[in-house]
Structures are given as structure tokens and as C-alpha cells.
Amino acid sequence: MDLDALYQDIILDHYKHPRNYGPIASEEVLMDEENPLCGDHIRLTAAVKDGVVQSVRFDGKGCAISMASSSMMTESVIDKPIEEARGVIRSFLASMRGDHPMDPEQAGDLIALEGVKKYPLRIKCATLGWHAIETALQKIAPHQ
Ligand code: ZN
């Protein structure tokens, strides 16, 4: 099995069928984030109950990488205790910066995005939704 082809399939699947995608009423929007370099634009809302991320939804338009990565982000943080969700977000952003490789055991579909690091201009596409959820969680539950 060609890994690149497999990863491309995962990205296209999330792009064509984004998980937890909209609709979002304008008063629900917690974060509105753009990547002018590519024209990606997403809006995001989230809910935390009893310290657990209950829901995350996003809408907007963008390239396959930005949409697929945002879709994977929702699956990576929903149902996680907020501190664990923050850890997943930090770890993903650090691996996109090149600080450490992803752990294939833990990354799940996210591993498909690891190749994006080879294209510095696309890293902003891959991290857009993750910066949005990081800030949204900070608004809902300020970190000490
Ligand atoms: Zn993009």
C-alpha cells in the first residue's frame, strides 16, 4: 500500500465529508479565523460541560488541507477532558512546527497531515482550525 495515496484518501474523505461541519448561528461564533495566504476562512463554536469538550462545530471555506485538518481536529478534541484536549492541540501544533514527529499509535487520521510539514506555505492551512479551537477553549475556560 502506497502510504502517500492512503494519506491523500484520508484527507480527501475529511474534505468531502467534513465531520462536525456547521451550521453555526452568528451569535454562536467563538472564533473567526482566516489564512489570507491561501484564502481559507473558518468560523468555529464549541461547548464545554463539566470540564469535558462536548461539541465543536465549524463552517467556512478553504482548501482541502484546511478543511480536512479542521474536521480531524473536531474528532480529536470532542469528548475529551479540556486539559487533555489542550494537550492534543499543543502536541499537534508542535509537530506541525517540526518540534517532534507524530506518534502513529496516537495520531489516528492526523498522521495523514504529517506530510504537510514539507510544504511550509501549507502549514498555516493545516493549523488554522487548531489555532481557532485553542483560542475558543481559552475563551470558554481560561487556562490558569
Ligand atoms: Zn489552505
Structure description:
- By secondary structure, the protein is of the alpha+beta class.
- Helix content is 48%, strand content 17%.
- The chain has one domain: Sufe protein. Chain: A, CATH 3.90.1010.10.
- It contains 5 helices and 3 strands, in the order αβββαααα.
- Strands 1-2-3 form a 3-stranded antiparallel β-sheet, covered by helices on one side.
- β2 and β3 (52-61) form a beta hairpin.
- The longest helix has 21 residues, at 120-140.
- Bound molecules: zinc ion (ZN).
- Zinc ion binds at residues 35, 38, 40, 62-63, 65-66, 125.
- Residues 35, 38, 40, 62-63, 65-66, 125 line the site of zinc ion (ZN).
Indicate the topology.
Blueprint (H helix, E strand, L loop, with lengths): L2 H14 L14 E5 L4 E10 L2 E10 L2 H14 L4 H16 L6 H4 L12 H21 L4
Antiparallel strand pairs: 1-2, 2-3
Helix pairs in contact: 1-2, 2-5, 3-5
Bound molecules: zinc ion.
The site of zinc ion (ZN) has 8 residues, from helix 2.
